[in-house]
Amino acid sequence: MEQKYKVGIIGATGMVGQRFITLTDNHPWFETVVLAASSRSAGKTYAEAVGNRWAMESEMPAWAKDMVVMDAEADVEKIAAMVDFVFCAVDMKKEEIKALEDRYAKAECPVVSNNSAHRWTPDVPMVVPEINADHIKVIEAQRKRLGTKRGFVAVKSNCSLQSYVPALHPLLKYGVEKALVCTYQAISGAGKTFETWPEMVDNVIPYIGGEEEKSEQEPLKLWGHVDGDHIANAEGPAITAQCLRVPVSNGHMAACFMSFKEKPSMEQIKADWAAFSGRAQELNLPSAPKQFLHYFEEDNRPQTKLDRNLENGMAVSIGRLRPDTQYDYKFVCLSHNTLRGAAGGAVLMAELLCAEGYIDHVQ
Q1: Which domain holds residue 58?
Q2: Are residues 169 and 244 in the same domain?
């Protein structure tokens, strides 16, 4: 790409914001030119603002260290004039996030959001590029509502469902009637490390606020369809979920049980997983995994430590497919929650939006 898209990261000091920095470092299409955070951090260099809270495995990139942090709320117009679009991952109340993202959109700055605030806004696409890339066409209706030419908000779905929804998706043709899922979620999903959350060492917490509702309901929007000026949710399959926080740094695992109208064989299921690809692979997007769904025949895989970084943390690992006594089949799956499940998924969605012409160069 001759000219890179100029990018801002809103909420740059948090864990997902840090991940956006590492993912846009040397990205073939994107160059980060703005880092913004709360008024507490504004005016400091990024290295000063983050202090000892840098939580990534890789070092803070040199270009980020000396960049002066802007004020995410006070500098909206100024930031919008400097970038082609922004990534947003802020820690604020839901209504405040909605208002802030709308302000950027109305300032003609597209917003690719990791936040949950706009996930249920009917004309805001919630996209996993391999599953429902066509939902981005609802952006035209959203722009009409906002009165914008360029500006819009697009969101990614919750990190908890990035393993089992991709695994169920190619099997929908057999009429998945219901699914039960138990998720085992890493502490980075709460923006924590073992240093900042020592209570999680040798511990499991059987509750993550709001997570079960998201895990049950958001797949129905992903599996829905664009109906005029909004996304109409799918009516099924019915999903019931239980979500646990486990003492793992990165990687959300899920145990999934499923029943079908027309039960396929295990061989058919594995063949469907192996053959599955989506728009992200078709367009050969820079962050897209070559093989989205990987099936392991070994009884003891996938394992969090061994498999979470598969295809740069953007692939889904599946294993232990077998018959069940209550449901038709059960399996285990794994995805990297801050890569595929958060910042990586948002970067892939931004690549899709650029490739499909919804984000253009203004800078």
Answers
A1: 5-158+343-355
A2: yes
- Does the structure show a pLDDT above 90 at 2? no
pLDDT in tens, 229-256: 999 999 999 999 999 999 999 999 999 9
Is 118 an active-site residue?
no
| Active-site position among 118, 135, 169, 252 | 252
Task: Give the number of domains in the chain.
Answer: 2
Exposed (0-12), middle (13-18) or buried (19+): which is 57, by Cβ within 10 Å?
Answer: exposed
Tokens (6 digits) for 240: 């019931």
In CATH, what number is assigned to the domain containing residue 183?
3.30.360.10
Q: Which of 159, 256, 333, 354 is the catalytic position? A: 159
- What does the alpha-carbon distance between residue 307 and residue 302 come to, in Å, rounded to a whole number? 6
What's the 3-state SS for the chain? CCCCEEEEEECCCCHHHHHHHHHHCCCCCEEEEEEEECCCCCCCEHHHHHCCCCCCCCCCCHHHHCCECEECCCCHHHHHCCCCEEEECCCCCHHHHHHHHHHHHHCCCCEEECCCCCCCCCCCCECCHHHHHHHHHHHHHHHHHHCCCCCCEEECCCHHHCCHHHHHHHHHHHCEEEEEEEEEECHHHHCCCCCCCHHHCCCCECCCCCHHHHHHHHHHHHCCEEECCEEECCCCCEEEEEEEECCCCCCEEEEEEEEECCCCCHHHHHHHHHHCCCHHHHCCCCCCCCCCEEEECCCCCCCHHHHCCHHHHCCEEEEEEEECCCCCEEEEEEECCCHHHHHHHHHHHHHHHHHCCCCCCCC
| pLDDT digit string, tens, across residues 304-361 | 999 999 999 999 999 999 999 999 999 999 999 999 999 999 999 999 999 999 999 9
Domain-embedded: residue 360: no
Residue 327 lies in a domain: yes
Within a domain: 362:
no
Q: Is residue 134 part of a domain?
A: yes
Distance CA 107, CA 105 (A): 5
